[in-house]
Amino acid sequence: MSQDATTPTVAEHPNTKAVLRITIVAAFGGFLFGYDSAVINGAVSAIQEEFGVGDLQLGFAIASALLGAAAGAFFGGRVADALGRVPVMKIAAVLFLVSAIACGVVDSFGWLIFWRIVGGVGVGVASVIAPAYIAEVAPASVRGRLGSLQQMGIVLGIFIALAVDAWLAALAGGSTEPLWWGFEAWRWMFMAEAIPAVAYLIGSFTIPESPRYLVEDGRPDEARAVLANLQGSASAAERVRLIKLSLQTEHKPRLSDLRGSSAGLKPIVWVGIGLAALQQFVGINVIFYYSNVLWQSVGFTEADSFTITVITSVVNVAVTIVAIALVEKVGRRRLLLVGSTGMTLSLGTLAVLFATAEKVLVDGELSPVLGPIAGPLALVAANLFVVFFGVSWGPMMWVLLGEMFPNRIRGAALAVAGFVQWIANWLVTVTFPTLADFSLGLAYGLYAFFGLVSLIFTIKMVRETTGIELEDMQD
Q1: How many CB atoms lie within 10 A of CB 459?
Q2: Listed range (149-158, 230-239, 310-319, 378-387) with the worst mean pLDDT
């Protein structure tokens, strides 16, 4: 991924206001990604009670959206190459909207899973389209910060979803209690997502198509106009020329393009797959999918668990702001190294605390209960884990996936990496209830192990991409 010395530097005069506006709209897909992923947190206990399902079925229901997300991520890039980035954002917004309303009115467990999968397809599409679009419209000098807005959207979506969950549960007197028009609070948690879904749909009608797609589609004049508005007219013509040059040796992305000199994949594709998988294997989404039932299981009340979860999501937002401020100064790779070290230590602490917790009989089963010292320590460790993740692997994985691949394979490589990311997310989510039932210490010990693997992986495999133009990314 070294910079090609033959490629001339293009002078940039970014229209900061215009670039920021369209980036925020694109990153709103990340907001819905975070909202849709986390909204089920407050409804977990209610769903289990409403439909009378066991831990394995519950885990599958929570993880079902991730199967749709994997499919959306895998095919979203191809559809975007055929239709354009913006039309695919509109499709994702409609999927979010339909899923939100349907999940709130379902009367069977099977239909709940189906509509969660539909929403998951929207999540998957948004997860690959937003970083690709942002990378294609952002000037190289601020691309890292703008790319980090995808993660900012995700963590804000998580925060708002958890805050709305807590508010609705408190308003109704519990997640299973009826609220407006006879619908229980947990149903309104899902239906509330319709509001940001409509906002995303409206916003997608106000932003321009990606200049790279316009050039590829034979519309260079439109691309030049977009770039002139975003980066200044002086650099627009040169940028269009460079995009044309990069496209001359390209064809529509194909999975076969990802093959290396041997039977395997190109090394850069393996790096993308590793980044995508390890971001999930450290168990971050256990915090945001299961934190309510997790804290209840070790002795906290439902109300306290909602409060703890919201506080954790606020921490997540705060550290993402820090990451955006540091990404161009510190660099992507260095932030990953710091994050991996901190995640390994904090997850290891959680593993020890849960493994050594006193077990008491609750509803006929032995369950760990954290004492007056271990309880606060676990809360601190969990939030430190979120801090180190939020300042590093949370935003940096999306930034790197959006910019690290050469132009000729970016679409196909993003599809594969996005698919792997969601499958890894699904594996962690669907296995946690069973792992937690067996041993919370084992579960968090496993996540700590992957934190250590992420550190070694970054040292050995990840290169810096700060300041390198997309047209200059190498295999």
Answers
A1: 12
A2: 230-239
The pLDDT score that the predictor gives to residue 11 is 46
The reported pTM is 0.69
Task: Return d(Cα 427, Cα 283) in angstroms, integer.
Answer: 10
Strand extents, DSSP E, 263-392: 358-362, 365-369
d(Cα 97, Cα 68) in Å, to the nearest integer? 15
Q: Which residue has the tokens 């002086």?
A: 234
| Domains defined for the chain, CATH in brackets | 16-207+249-463 (1.20.1250.20)
Q: Kindly state the average pLDDT of the residues 287-313.
A: 68
Name the CA radius of gyration of the chain, rounded.
22
* Alpha helix positions (H), 106-142: 109-137
| Concatenated DSSP letters of 36-87 | HHHGGGGGHHHHHHHHT--HHHHHHHHHHHHHHHHHHHHHHHHHHHHH-HHH
Residue 141's pLDDT band (cuts 50, 70, 90)? low
Q: Helix, strand or coil for residue 365?
A: strand
CA atoms of 468 and 450, how far apart (whole Å):
29
C-beta of residue 80 within 8 angstroms of C-beta of residue 132: yes
Identity of the amino acid at 385: F
Whether the Cβ atoms of residue 119 and residue 142 lie closer than 8 Å to each other: no
Residues with Cβ < 8 Å from 120, sequence gap 6 or more?
A: 36, 64, 65, 66, 67, 68, 69, 70, 71, 72, 99
Backbone angles phi, psi at 307, to 5 degrees: -65, -45
User: Structure tokens of 415?
Assistant: 């599809």
* Whole-angstrom distance, CA of residue 45 vs CA of residue 331: 41
State how far the Cα of 179 lies from the Cα of 185, in Å rounded to an integer.
6
SS3 368: strand
Q: Which two tokens stand for residue 168?
A: 């609705």
Amino acid at 236: A
Reported as a single tens digit per residue, the pLDDT across 174-230 is 777 777 887 888 889 889 989 989 998 998 898 888 788 788 777 878 878 877 777
Q: pLDDT, tens digit, for every residue of 195-207?
A: 989 998 998 898 8
Q: How confident is the model at residue 256 (pLDDT cuts 50, 70, 90)?
A: low
Q: Six-digit token pair at 142?
A: 């601020």
3-state secondary structure of 6: coil
What lies within 8 Å, CB to CB, of 123 at 6+ separation is 32, 33, 36, 37, 65, 68, 69, 72, 92, 96
Residues 147, 156 contacting (CB under 8 angstroms): no
State yes or no: pLDDT of 364 exceeds 60: no
Mean pLDDT score, 260-276 = 77
Residue 473's pLDDT is 47
